[in-house]
Please model this.
Amino acid sequence: MLSDMTFGQYYPSESPVHRMDPRAKLLLLIVYIVAVFLAKNFYGLAVCLIFLLLAIAFSRVPVRSVLKSVKGIVILILFTFVLNVLFYTPKEGDVVLFWRVTVQGLVSASFFALRIIFLVMGSSVLTLTTTPVSLTDGLESLLAPLALIRFPVHDLALIMSIALRMIPTLAEETDRIIRAQKARGADFESGNLVSRAKALVPVLVPLLVSAFRRANELGDAMDARCYAGSSKRTKYKKLKFSYRDLLALLVTGALLAGVILCNVYAYLLPVLY
Amino acid sequence: MRIVADGLTFTYNRKTKFAKKALDDVTLTIREGSFFGIIGHTGSGKSTFIQHLNGLIPVESGTLTVGDLDLSKGKKTDKKGLRALRAKIGMVFQYPEYQLFATTVYEDVAFGYHNFFPEKSKEEERAAVFAALRTVGLDDSVADKSPFDLSGGQKRRVAIAGVLVSDPEVLVLDEPVAGLDPAGKNELMALLHRIHDGGKKTVVVVSHDMDDVAENCDALAVFSEGRVVMTGTPEEVFSRRKELEELRLDVPVTRKIADALAEKGLGNAFPLRSDDFVRKVAQLYRGKRV
Model:
């Protein structure tokens, strides 16, 4: 089924991470990403890994689900790895294995590959533990100050939540159309690239038509309820920033400090490569 | 084509948190030439079952034979065999008009023909397409129109023609009258009877409208939570009103009136089909009067 493809979707569970304020989670992710990028050596990355593993453990999401998100970008990771190995500028004393490939090149390419993997895994912990709706709420609340400069924060949040909401619906619809056309003898698996691309027309046209139909219906339904998206709207579910969120942010602050310490005092630590 | 399922079981999203058993030990025979009705609630496994019939869902456990083709697990059906099967088992999904895609009605109807019989000539294709359009009651002038310019009922007919074009021996339809007005509903049912033609073709209809199946089908299967809980003629199935109501399924309106009349001692053994029912009531009424 196509729905297997949508990785990083919400994993329903009861955990401290699920219950966290989405704003805290978003801030936390931003700090985590900064930390991963700041890390200059494997010690720094190790600190990030500890933090990541802690987050996964607290979220009670199976590690398998988190790793599934990495599976989607394996090609990207391999691609950057190979490029990094080939374009590594060798320094004096580097051990050449063959051609341009050095031990140090492999090590630094692994470093960059790990960085991408950590980024993706961290982000997927957020999407696995946060429903699209609360994610959008969090984003809207964080961006609220921008409304002062007439930035349409609410509209943007609405667009985002509708888009996120429609992904599984359209995936399901695609699945349905594919089955219907298969029943009419359509073949999506054989032939060269051109004939395969052509075979998609009977799927894409109905999908597009149905997306427009759904958009119209949703628009009408919103109109019928006098939805205007004004700033005067109140919320049924108010976001609450609790001590738990503060604690999580403090831990994240410690992560950032740890990474910076690893960078500054790198000369005190044994050289790994 | 006879369809025999034995112990058919299927689970969606197997081995995950979202696992859902859709079919549970389904044993069912659909006789060749019958007008077969499958009834049950949403999520009772009806749609999952019919998608097994043309190999859209591979058999996970249990056995299934369609005509002389064995679709059971382990029996390798190659691509050619699968295509031949799909040409013979026409499958009309719910709201089939949503799968129209071509720029003209002709092209859309020809899509299936071209897929199933790529070796046939243009003339043969034309003959098959126009025959299919006429069968569904559309005249030749619509062939050059865009399918998106047609009315809802016409679109559905075009979609059905797109399935009929390969001249299937079995026609399977998932909720074929959903969203149609009463006139459109009657027309579509009449069309299905024309295709069925007294048993020349097998028609399988998935529905949750009890009046529809009582009027039209000669055999029924009732699905509930992935299991087949009742099979038999409409008369047999709808005589078990209590059991059906326990499954929160309705009975046809003729059955309800018949029960109400019988309760008042105004006769018994009422027929299920509405025209027979009316005749019987008229007879009784005259009998009392005269």
